[in-house]
Amino acid sequence: MATATQTFDDLDKALLTELQKQFPIDHRPFQLLGEKLGMSEQQCLDRVARLKSTKVIRQLSAIFDTRALGYQSTLAAMRVDSSRVDEAAEVISQHPGVSHNYKRNDPFNIWFTVAVPPNDSLEQVIQILHTLAKADETIVLPTLRLYKIGVKLDLTGQEAPLENAEDIYDEKRRMAAKPPLTDEDIRLIRVMQEDLPMLELPYVVWAEQAEVTEEQLFAWAKKMEHLGYMRRFAAILHHRNAGFLANAMVVWQVPQEQVDPVGEEMARFREVSHCYRRPVYPNWPYPLFTMIHAETHSACMDVVKRIEARVGQFPHKSLFSTKEYKKERVKYFTPELDRWWHDVGQPTLQRLQG
User: Fold this and answer.
1) CA geometry: angle at 260 spanning 254 and 264, to 5°?
2) Phi, psi at residue 162, to the nearest 5°?
3) Helices of type H across 134-266
4) Looking at the structure, do residues 88 and 49 belong to the same domain, yes or no?
């Protein structure tokens, strides 16, 4: 598999596939990972550093569960005049809680996700963004049930076509009662959500930044994963640079009583990175959303056909991203959102209420 400018040998492919699953939280993580893949610590570190410098690996960090941390988040879609799409998308992307923002081939032509801290009003933020973007219409599509989350691109071609049951998102685990986050928790989250230093002993640096010992950091990470605050520690790839040139958001018009069993089955397809149940509207009758990643447009459509062969045929639309405006991880417990509220949010809200 290759992009227009890069090729990967078998070891690159195995490394990239493994990095997306789980990166070791250990004193010498590159040594452990290298041993698993048959190379030395330095060879492993050098390869990861190269794949980062060539923008195949987007980030290597802790991946936290937005909702478990108390943040509110939603997918939203806007219908904006075609002559103003880029301008509207730029306004939306300026919000620090917007992690994904795409133009898609649909009358609802701007699709974005936004997250806000526990004490902020998600409804107000959507209202403000709708106003600033001068959208004709906005529909809010929060997650009603999450069947699967997590992009794990198979570069080896050797992964099983269907996920095991343990790979599917555990909603009960997220909903289980958790102890409230402490100041130390928040300090460690701020550190571990950043990109891992490319060093033989990277966690030593992070432990110093968080004002804990390395052993305390390891114990904390294990606890946070057990409690469901942290989903995993892994790499996120630049899909296109990794050779996956197409992604389709396929929305399915499934009868309400069938959504859960159908969603659970769709989530088992390895090419499906995200699978959600969302609300329907008179002008949007699609409760089931699947994100599909593949090397080409036609490969995405082949996955759709395989899904239909397994779950049955339902009316659906395949929305391909035609332009990426923003794609980055949400940073939790940082001051950027406060600045946005002060500079943009509050003045706009006052005008709306005035």
Assistant:
1) 110
2) -115, 140
3) 171-175, 183-192, 202-210, 214-227, 259-266
4) no
Q: Does some domain include residue 18?
A: yes
Quote the DSSP letter at residue 193.
Answer: T
- Using a 10 angstrom Cβ sphere, with 0-12 exposed, 13-18 middle and 19 or more buried, the burial of residue 295 is middle
Model-level pTM? Answer: 0.86
First-residue to last-residue Cα distance in the chain: 56
Question: Do 257 and 292 reside in the same domain of the chain?
Answer: yes
Range of the domain at 42: 9-54
In this structure, the answer to whether residues 19 and 128 fall within a common structural domain is no
- At 349, which amino acid appears? L
Give the separation between CA 39 and CA 275, rounded to whole angstroms: 36
Query: Which amino acid does the sequence have at 48?
Result: V
User: How many whole angstroms separate alpha carbon 196 and alpha carbon 60?
Assistant: 6
Angstrom distance (rounded) from CA 342 to CA 151: 34
DSSP 8-state assignment for residue 157: S
Joined together, the tokens standing for residue 151 give: 């992009």
Count the domains in the chain: 2
Q: Are 76 and 289 within 8 A, CB to CB?
A: no
pLDDT in tens, the chain (354 residues): 444 447 889 999 999 999 999 999 999 999 999 999 999 999 999 999 999 999 999 999 999 999 999 999 999 999 999 999 999 999 999 999 999 999 999 999 999 999 999 889 999 999 999 999 999 999 999 999 999 987 555 555 555 555 544 455 555 555 555 789 999 999 999 999 999 999 999 999 999 999 999 999 999 999 999 999 999 999 988 877 877 788 899 999 999 999 999 999 999 998 898 999 999 999 999 999 999 988 889 999 999 999 999 999 999 999 999 999 999 889 999 999 999 999 999 999 999 887
Does residue 163 sit within a domain? no
**Which residues does residue 291 pair with via DSSP β-bridges, in sequence order?**
249, 274
Instruction: Give me the active site residues, please.
Output: 100
Instruction: Write the CB contacts of 108 (distance below 8 Å, at least 6 apart in sequence).
Output: 77, 78, 79, 137, 139, 284
